[in-house]
Amino acid sequence: MHRIRILERNLAGSRTMTSRPALRRGVCMMMLSSVFFSLMSAMVRELRDVNSFTTVMMRFVVGGLVVGVLFVSGFRKMRWRNWPWMIARGVTGGVACSLFYWGIQHIGLSKAVLLGYTYVIFASVFAVLILGEQIDPRHWLAIAAAAGGIAMVCGVQNLSGGSGEMIALLGGLVSGFAVVCVTKCRENDSSTNIFFSQCVFGVGIVALPTLTHWKEPTPVQWIFLALIGLLAAAGQLSMTYAYKFTGASYGSLLSLLTPILSAILGVVYFKETFGASTLVGSTLILVSCCYLSWNPVGRTRAESTSGESISEEDLAVRSFP
Q1: Predicted pLDDT at 206
Q2: Domain ranges (residues) in the chain
Q3: pLDDT for the residue 156
Q4: 33 pLDDT exceeds 80?
Q5: CA dihedral defined by 59, 61, 65, 71, rounded to 10 degrees?
């Protein structure tokens, strides 16, 4: 019983005590979300004959349709208030997703997903620079360790960093800025509207390259494209549900199961290989992400004592991709 109480106090995102059955349900839903996102990424990797612009366009269209159903049915209201930050969120989110999908097709599933999830590190830095959040030496140590891991994964230590890895890393950086945009948007707007902004601006961003690189998909490829969009939507919805029970910090830690599952799929199904430096670098990145997820910047001692923290809804809409 004592251990349960300690665990509940450490679930920083939870404002109320969570029962064991509810916590288990949240953990299961978060793990299911990671499975959905990993399968989505694997399907993007499988569709190498379909250009990434077409793939990400389908992801935005399906996501927009799902949210549109919520608006039409009356479950959610479409209302944008913080327009500058909503536009910034939509544009950066659309660019980040496009770079993420491009990276999966060009450098492999394992590397691309791992570099995409570096948004946790970049978001911490942007939060300090833009939002004025607090950061202590331990956070900087985690960021420095992650930077070393990124250099090892990208091959920078051998002066052999490929352009593909750098583009995928750029996606993580842009996504980190998108997280800051979400934080600003959540002052006035709902998570549903923020997600919808990403779909709307994402379609606008990839519309021209999709048309200029258009190649009619085969019937089987159309099925895969539809599944990619549905899996992304299912991952988002299940993650949103899970955060209600896991809390923000614990839930964000569980979401890091996605790059691990993606790496397993990459090795087992796509026969991707890792060198020693990539394995060490990946470990440094994941450990740093875990620390920054469990101890996010900006939390003062007074806030922790009063129980204030990042909301579950915020974390759900921040998730990448």
Answers
A1: 93
A2: 19-318
A3: 56
A4: yes
A5: 100
